[in-house]
Amino acid sequence: MSVPHPAAPALAVGLISSAALGYEILLLRIFAIVHWHHLVATAISLALLGYGASGTFIAVFRVALERHFAAVFVANAMLFGISALACTALAQQLPFDPQALTWEPLQLLYLAATFLLLSVPFFAAANCVGLALSAYRDEIPRLYGYDLLGAGLGALLLLVALSWLHPADILYLIFALGLLVGAAAARHQRWYPWSAAAVAITLAFTAWMFARPAIHPADYKDLTRSLWVVGAETETVSHGIAGLVTVVRNDVVPVRLAPGLSLNTTTLPPRQRAVFVDGELAGAIDDHEHTATSALYLGDLTSALPYHLLQSPQVAVLNAGIGTSVQQALHLGAASVTAIEPNAQLPALLCKPNPGDNLGVCDTRRVRWHFQASRAFLAGTGAPFDLIAIDIHSDPTGLDALNIGFDLTTGAMTDYLRHLAPGGLLSINGNTRVPPRLLLRAIDTARVALLQAGSNDPATHIAAIRGWQRFNLLVSRSPLTGTQLAGIRTFCRKHGFDLVWLPDIQAGEVNQYQRLSEPLFHRGAAAILGGGSQRSAT
Questions:
Q1: Are residues 33 and 166 in the same domain?
Q2: How many CB atoms lie within 10 A of CB 285?
Q3: Structural domain tally of the chain?
Q4: By three-state DSSP, how is residue 149 classified?
Q5: What is the pTM of this model?
Q6: 307/445 same-domain check
Q7: What is the sign, positive or negative, of the torsion defined by CA atoms of 155, 161, 166, 170?
Q8: In a domain, 273, yes or no
């Protein structure tokens, strides 16, 4: 066996491992931006595919590869960088649509092609590591140590880079690092070092000038479709570990987003700018000044119900996002608001450019922002709240079922109830679908949590209403009072919302406004809370 004369390229192995793991983690972000975060787990499969193919390749051609170790190592290091850039760009050109996998067989070919393209960089990186281990058997412990150290360092550096750089810029740096490793290995192995350096510099310069990487959401994503509308333009783009945040303005066809708005409303939202996280709609920023009517629409949403039942409540808004629910709380009389949001980029869209023109969302005297997960915040505070408000976005069926969320578990519901002050309310808002799923799941979870909290009759602690596309579920630690039930009925009559559940609901009160052929929402709630038809109004 011919062993290369120079010492083992331990540093090069460490650097290529660092770049490979950084690229693997970067793929998580790229998948989330281009497609959906549901696909991020495939990055691990891609790495395993590339490394597995490399092991087979080296096992079959080991003798020839070791004979030309320097050339093969340098070529694969540079191939890693080139393929990381090129294959990512090519994969974005494939018309892959995960939504169509169930009915369009051609999508399986696009998926396979995507896997093959994105596994090439891992194949090249694994060739470098595997060939070094094979050729320098006496130095395996040292090489393996550099491999592990480099991989760990790459993961840490990638996380830091995501806080400061756009994912496309990080992709270019990984490309350049692959070229650098190739040039450094050529010098270390004394294999045409000047030629390798010239090739690396030429490729890096050419890519920077003419082929800089770009990461674009697929055609089916919300951001792409919004930019197709006449007059739409990207206003700002910010990046961070939590996601790529894009703000889109359209002065020709203004965005007006008000989920749960009553059909009886006499006010409309002001002009808005749409906010997207990783290409998916995350809310809208009102383009208003402080006027008497700019926020009136916030009182006509299904989510406004608890504010008509409580006086000057101390409010906790979970998953506060860009602060629309915080604006609503302040507008409807909250004494103070504690806003919890994991992604600090979202409230920064309001607070940094214009902290005085957002209905008090950034007023530190009335609003306290906490940038962490909702349940982590609740675990660390003992403060009681008169109202805890949360929006639930995941649905237990369809593609939304792939979302990983812990906001609607029994444990989470128990935490929410534990942090309610006496007479306090938990307000859960979400989308309605037919047949009903998310609302019924929330009702059942609340029922179980109330039973665990010691309630003998959870049905008396729960109220639910629905609009044409949104629902509001109220849960109390104590039975709802007659005054609260009367207030709920008055609110629904005024705004044209349908009652889904009240402890004393009557047959003629359900399915009045957004009429369905059958009162499916109420029947489902009654089956959960009333033991079938025992309490059903129909």
A1: yes
A2: 23
A3: 2
A4: helix
A5: 0.86
A6: yes
A7: negative
A8: no
What pLDDT sits at residue 1? Answer: 41
Which residue stretches of the chain have pLDDT < 50?
1-4, 531-534, 536, 538
Q: What is the CATH number of the domain that holds 513?
A: 3.40.50.150
Give residue-wise pLDDT tens across range 192-222. 888 888 998 998 898 888 888 888 898 889 9
Main-chain dihedrals φ then ψ at residue 95, nearest 5 degrees: -80, 50
CA distance 19 to 13: 10
The residue written with tokens 């214009």 in the block is 354
* CA 481 centroid distance within chain: 38
537 located within any domain = no
Q: Tokens 């806003």 — which residue?
A: 339
Question: What pLDDT is recorded for position 538?
Answer: 47
pLDDT, tens only, 317-347: 999 998 899 999 999 999 999 999 999 898 8
Q: Residue written as tokens 């919004």?
A: 226
Last residue of a domain, one of 210, 226, 257: 210
Range of the domain at 161: 10-210
How distant is the alpha carbon of residue 371 from its chain centre? 15
Residue 412 lies in a domain: yes
Within a domain: residue 233? no
Q: Does the bond joining 105 to the residue before it have cis omega, within 30 degrees of 0?
A: no
Task: Give pLDDT, residue 401.
Answer: 52
Q: What is the pLDDT of residue 405?
A: 66
pLDDT for the residue numbered 209: 85
Q: Residue ranges of the alpha helices (H) in 380-503? A: 410-418, 438-452, 482-495
C-beta of residue 423 within 8 angstroms of C-beta of residue 386: yes
Owner of token pair 């902290």: 355
Domain boundary among 210, 239, 267: 210
